[in-house]
Amino acid sequence: MESYDVAIIGGGPAGSATAITLGRLGWRVLLADSAPVGRFRVGEGFPPSARSLLRDLGVLDGFLGAGHRTSYGNVSIWGSDQPHMDDFIFHTHGQGYQLDRAAFDQQLRAAARQIGVSVQPSTRLSQTAAEDGFQLLLSRDGHEQLAHSRWLIDAGGRPAVFARQQGAERLTDDRLVAFYLLLHSSQDSDQDGRTLVEAVEHGWWYSVLLPSGERLVTYLSDLDLLDRQQLLNSEGLWQQLAQTRLLWGLCQAHGYRPGTSVHGMDAGSGRLSRFHGERWAAVGDAALSFDPLSSQGIATALYCGQHCARAVHGALQGDVQALPGYADLLARIYTAYLANRQQFYGMEKRWGESIFWSRRQVRKNAF
Predict the structure, then answer these.
(1) Pair 85, 220 in one domain
(2) Given 50, 110, 215, 277, which residue has the most CB atoms within 10 angstroms?
């Protein structure tokens, strides 16, 4: 039976950043991810200021050579009928990127493997508590393997299954959901790598040009305000898109048409009622989840992954203040996030009768 100091559930950016940091600190680490290898994930913008996080993890050079699409800024119709442009060229850190998420996640897991982390892709991890940690059962392709770990970290995303099994509650601040669709065009004329954002009466849209050449369009609104069945039909979402101005004009100019089926996903703001317990901690979306408007999901996952690793490192060495300090950091991040979220949503006042927008004018306290 293999024995580890720390087992991590989830091989996304938060889990991998945690694994890399713990591996560098000398611990025996298992990183298990249940998602199929190469599964499509919604493309995300990588902000210029987050480069330093990749440098800290030792993966910046590989990232720059991985073929992610360069992004030179954002264009938004928000709070006004006129487009507003934010060009990264005027920022200290220069250009950003539109991520190929599958390639990005694979690069981080490869970096973890290179420093001795046991990376187990397409592997489901279940556990039972033991006196000195957790007994693990790893399942892949019909084969099962037993292992043991002193600590366990939940980096398994918004469901936070393990953390909730330990008694933590999932607290949500809204019911935002996202419906996304990939668009195809035979013209190959679209070269706009900027993130495009457009507010509408009952929600908002964003769109990015992926490294694959496909354009992702995503509509966000509250679950109770939507006709879910209609939007899960590609033509239904396409008809909704036709009501936009910036995005519909772009689609018409480059000959885009729906290229895939529509998928829906939770996009709301939420957190756990507690971020750690007896021999466990949570990180990434399992601990804190953000509205995509914030554009801070990936960067915060990498940042908090490193801090989670250092906190667990301290706890393994007997530092009783390490994990409370980590929890305080997450609380401060989420409090600042809610304040910024209200500020940005508060800028949009064109639809005073809209339930979606009126809900976001009320200030919420995180803790």
Answers:
(1) yes
(2) 215
Round the CA-based radius of gyration of the chain to a whole number and report it. 21
In this model, does residue 309 exceed pLDDT 70? yes
Q: Helices (H), strands (E): how many in the chain?
A: 11, 22
**What is the separation, in whole angstroms, between the first and last Cα of the chain?**
42
Q: Do 184 and 292 fall into the same domain?
A: no
* Residues 180 and 263 reside in one and the same domain: yes
| Structure tokens given for 315 | 């706890």
Residues 258, 236 within the same domain = yes
Range of the domain at 141: 1-44+101-171+271-367
How far apart, in whole angstroms, are the C-alpha atoms of residue 199 and residue 77? 6
SS3 234: helix
Residue at a domain's end among 213, 234, 267 = 267
Same domain, 257 and 279: no
What gap in Å lies between CA 10 and CA 48, rounded to an integer?
25
CB 263 within 8 A of CB 251: no
Q: How far apart are CA 356 and CA 214, in angstroms?
A: 29
Residue with tokens 């091989």: 11
SS3 73: strand
Over residues 15-21, mean pLDDT: 98
d(CA 257, CA 241): 11
**How many separate domains does the chain show?**
2
Given 267, 293, 314, the domain boundary residue is 267
Question: Residue 332 and residue 144: Cα distance in Å, rounded?
Answer: 40
Q: Determine contact, residues 8/29, Cβ cutoff 8 Å.
A: yes
The pLDDT tens digits of the residues spanning 312-341 come to 999 999 999 999 999 999 999 999 999 999
Among 148, 90, 173, which residue's Cα sits nearest to residue 360? Answer: 173
Q: Kindly report, residue by residue over 4-16, the tens digit of the pLDDT.
A: 999 999 999 999 9
> Is 260:169 a contact under the CB 8 Å cutoff?
no
